[in-house]
Amino acid sequence: MRANQWAHEVRASYAFVERNINLIKRYWGWEVVWLSYTIANSLAITYIGAGMERISGQAVDTQFLVMYLLIGTLVWHFLSVIFDIVSETIAWERWEGTIEYTLMAPISRFTHLVGSTLFSLVYGFAHTVIILLAVVLFFRLDLSGANLGGAALVLLAGSMSFIGLGIVAAVLPLLFPERGAQMTHVVQALLLLVSGVYYPVEVLPAWLQVLSRLSPATYVLEGMRAAILDGASFAHLWGETAPLLLLGGVLVPLGVFVFRQAERFAKRTGRLSRDG
């Protein structure tokens, strides 16, 4: 019976993955636009590093700057895709007019959220690989000294933290139908500012540096740059991985708990309307 129950939960989670893939197919035109813009934006940011010698008039290590900016661009894109998809889970249901059916369906909310997070990981990885392949056509990347295994470990740990953040943020569209989705983008913008995506967090004002230590993206970016640019060992990367595992271990169960409480409140107060 337990095996059958697990099989049912796995199929139910995959159903949400498949449903989201079908949504991507339906709006493929927008996907092309979004991907094209993201590639162009990634190249523009990376070319800042390539042009820094000309901008400053000083001799600089342009290869290092290109890699520094590229890591920030790709990592932030991957993490922000995860955050966007998970945090807008409820918003997607409203846009498609399926929110009542989904939240009243005889499945656990955990199963629903697992399906959304699995899709976010697959979608984010595919998007990021496409962007990386496009960048390789324009820049010669030297990864001979990189610890790619360590970088993958840091990114995986950071993904769990951002999944937890996304679940917590998904409460906003649930409780505030008209403005909740916009509020999640404010949260994302704050994370972008304090996490050192395109610059070291040390250049921020002291009070923002304190906030940067609360952002999982800060540790992901520091770990990824240490692994790829410096070839840092697994032991060295533990300083970034440990906080990420701690944040993920707290944020994921906290997010599921908060979401369940918010869902009960939304059902009692009639906030599951399709149009908000």
Write the layout of secondary structure elements.
Blueprint: H1 2-26, H2 28-50, H3 52-56, H4 62-87, H5 89-96, H6 99-104, H7 109-136, H8 148-169, H9 171-175, H10 180-194, H11 206-212, H12 216-229, H13 234-268
Helix pairs in contact: 1-7, 2-4, 2-7, 4-7, 4-8, 4-10, 4-12, 8-12, 8-13, 12-13
Structure description:
With 276 residues, this protein is mainly alpha-helical. It has one domain. The protein has 13 helices and no strands. Helix 4 runs parallel beside helix 8. It is globular. It starts with a helix and ends in an 8-residue tail after the last helix.
Quick synopsis:
This protein is an all-alpha fold and 276 residues long. The chain has 13 helices and no strands.
Please give the share of residues in helix. over 70%
Tell me the fraction of residues in β-strands, as a range: under 5%
Our measurement of the CA-to-CA distance between the termini, rounded to an integer number of angstroms, reads: 40 Å
Listing every helix as H and every strand as E from the N terminus to the C terminus, the arrangement reads HHHHHHHHHHHHH
Compute the number of helices: 13
Count of extended strands: 0
Query: Mind describing the biggest β-sheet?
Result: none
Decide which structural class fits the backbone. Answer: mainly alpha
Q: List segments where confidence is low: pLDDT < 50 over at least 5 consecutive residues.
A: none
Number of domain units: 1
Kindly state the mean pLDDT as a whole number? Answer: 86
Described by the principal axes of the CA atoms, the overall outline is globular
Radius of gyration: 20 Å
